[in-house]
């Protein structure tokens, strides 16, 4: 069992003292894995995932309250990823071996189109806290542009509203790696004069690269890794 599970512990990017861990618990050899054992492992692990996610958001909240000298001129900005940062995909993966099955993109997109992904409560709370401070919120997601309507509906259903921009991957972005795509999206914001105070995402590819931010925060991810 231990040989078939990959456990990656990663500290939040640039967050000193943050104990939140990043688990990529599924190796590429999923077809050789005992599904029932994996399910038991994931169910017990999920408690720690939730606790570490909440701990990470507390670090974000502390940073904003103590280190962000917001200008209040409409150019203060904060960036969030969407999946497994604002919305949870665990309900989908729970029905598909917690990622033990090879991802079926068609099935996953069909699930996304239902707009039923629940909010991550700790992220929802911070989203509204930062918005109430007058910070412009921009969402940069690896979802396809074809999912825009479903994504907007899902965000509203989950309690998110009032963001200033939602960037999704168009056809012209398909040949870019995730990090390059998200870096280009941030570059467009800085060219408009926005000061990016922070980035919150569940993948390193969401928070790394230039232009950066005043601080980047890596949340634990429960099921997958995107380069």
From TrEMBL:
Residues 1-21 form the signal peptide. The keyword Signal applies. Pfam families: Acid_phosphat_B. CDD domains: HAD_VSP. Transmembrane segments: none annotated. One of its GO terms (molecular function) is nutrient reservoir activity. Keywords: Glycoprotein, Signal, Storage protein. InterPro entries: Acid_phosphat_B-like, APS1/VSP, HAD-like_sf, HAD_sf. Coiled coil: none annotated. PANTHER family: ACID PHOSPHATASE, ACID PHOSPHATASE-LIKE PROTEIN. Belongs to the APS1/VSP family. May function as somatic storage protein during early seedling development. This is ACID PHOSPHATASE-LIKE PROTEIN. It comes from Salix purpurea.
């Amino acid at each position: 069992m231990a040989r078939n599970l990959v456990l990656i512990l990663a500290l939040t990017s640039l967050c000193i003292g943050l104990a939140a861990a990043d688990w990529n618990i599924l190796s590429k050899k999923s077809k050789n894995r005992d599904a029932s054992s994996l399910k038991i492992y994931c169910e017990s692990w999920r408690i720690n995932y939730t606790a570490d996610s909440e701990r990470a958001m507390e670090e974000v909240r502390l940073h904003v309250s103590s280190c962000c000298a917001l200008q209040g001129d409409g150019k203060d900005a904060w960036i969030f990823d969407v999946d497994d940062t604002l919305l949870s995909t665990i309900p989908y993966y729970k029905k598909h071996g917690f990622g033990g099955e090879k991802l079926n993109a068609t099935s996953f997109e069909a699930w996304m189109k239902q707009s039923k992904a629940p909010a991550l409560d700790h992220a929802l709370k911070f989203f509204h806290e930062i918005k109430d401070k007058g910070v412009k919120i921009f969402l940069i997601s690896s979802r396809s542009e074809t999912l825009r309507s479903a994504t907007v509906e899902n965000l509203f259903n989950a309690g998110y509203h009032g963001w200033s921009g939602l960037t999704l991957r168009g056809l012209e972005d398909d040949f870019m790696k995730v990090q390059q795509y998200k870096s280009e999206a941030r570059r467009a914001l800085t060219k408009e004069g926005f000061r990016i105070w922070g980035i919150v995402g569940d993948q390193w590819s969401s928070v790394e690269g230039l232009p950066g931010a005043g601080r980047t925060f890596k949340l634990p991810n429960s099921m997958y890794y995107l380069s």
